[in-house]
Amino acid sequence: MNIKNVLNNISQEKKMFFIFLIINIIVWAGLGMIRVVLPTDSLEGIFWGSLHDLGTPKHPPLAGWLTYIVYSVFKCDLSVYLLCVTFISVGMYFIYKLGIIFLDEKCAILSAVVMEGCWAYSYVTSYYGFNPDVVLLGLLPILTYLGYKCLNENKKTDWIILGIITGICFLNKYQTALIILPLALWAVIFKKEIFKNVYFYLSIIIAFFIFLPHLLWLVKYEFFPLLYFEGELSSNSWLNHITAPLNFLIMQIGAIAGTLVIFLLLKLKQKSALKINFISDSKTWFLLLIGAVPLIVHLCMGFCAGGTMRPRWGFEFLYLTGIMLFYFLPVKELSKDDIKFTFKLAYCVMAIIFIVMATLLSVEKNYRSRYPVAQIHNDLLKIWSDKYDTPLKYIGGYIEWTLPLTIYGDTHPTCILDTNNYKNPWIDNDDLKKSGFIILDRNIEEIKDHFKKECNYLKNMPNPVEYKFKLTNAFGQEREYTIYYLIIPPEK
Description:
Blueprint: H1 3-8, H2 12-32, H3 40-50, H4 62-74, H5 77-102, H6 105-113, H7 124-127, H8 132-153, H9 156-170, H10 177-190, H11 198-220, H12 226-233, H13 240-255, H14 257-270, H15 282-305, H16 312-315, H17 321-328, H18 336-363, H19 367-370, H20 373-385, E1 394-397, H21 399-408, E2 414-416, H22 429-435, E3 437-441, H23 444-454, E4 465-472, E5 478-488
Parallel strand pairs: 1-2, 1-3
Antiparallel strand pairs: 3-5, 4-5
């Protein structure tokens, strides 16, 4: 069968969907290029990946490995943005594939297209960059799709692939368990016979062995990445136990606001009533369990712990939103005009978000997106070389000042990450003392805090020095920042 025949056999709606995915990649990757430096999450990923370690202070290593590999091969920021939007578009495609199980093909396509209105599938690329959350945006729809197929069709090949995908997901982020849990619960309720299936256990074994290297790494370092979550979720006020989950819930609703608007406008065009269609069967409970359990678990965590709950922790679990809308609030039979109307709405949302974000990224004078790396790198090298003949090997302090210097600086000094007392297993403390380093931070008090944590072998702290630099937005407007640096001399 030649390419022409293949294209002729693809429906018009599906062709429109593929074009939409390509445009989605071009638009959001292009938006990121307005920045001067990559988002901090991407810079962290490149740095962690460059260490070739089996873990990081926050997460398993997969996202870092992928970011580092792509950046090392192509040597440009665009490659990281393309990696990001490729995962997002793959996720949207498997939302469609998953949707076919519950809907007809037209509704399945639109269930993916309306997700353009969700923050996670649009501006997240240029704002957060590539990180474990973005990886899950691509992998969790695949995991859910394969999970349903395995539990219902029981094919050996599907079980093997499911084991591989599950292991890869856990090698990216521990929160994968929040999808495995409702999948297992659904199997207990509707597919008990699966627990007698040898392929089910083969899938678990495959996933376990993929995750095993990181598990051994966790044991070696006493599970120290879990301290990140402990630090994030620790509370200073009883009121946080109420406000933290409430704010998290509001932000999740806000994240899908655009999706809801697109869907409701389609319903309005069709003059279709907002009548809930609830049939208590296995498919309905599959959607409810997979869609609700991760949200409920997060809300319970916030209520019990009361600490900071980052909204993006929930974004990767919103992928069923479009499917659930079309499943529980069914539309009338879709005409060609209805489908074109929905695509136009999605493109309008895309354009609005792009214009807003492009304007903000262009006018803002923020060090997170317009950090003058070359100037600061050269100034610090000169400051160091005026005092010492040895190279500047290490730089510590606030990661949003130091990571860009590590990634973009010509000499690539190793970053001593500000990990709030977490271990830095990639740092040789003896070499750190022998080589000396520079600490950068926003104020003298934070400099003192770094000195206490990283320089306890010194009795007296040298004097911090004020350092000023200017950054320029896309329109040539300047903003001056004042930070401080502290030189820790090489140990004699």
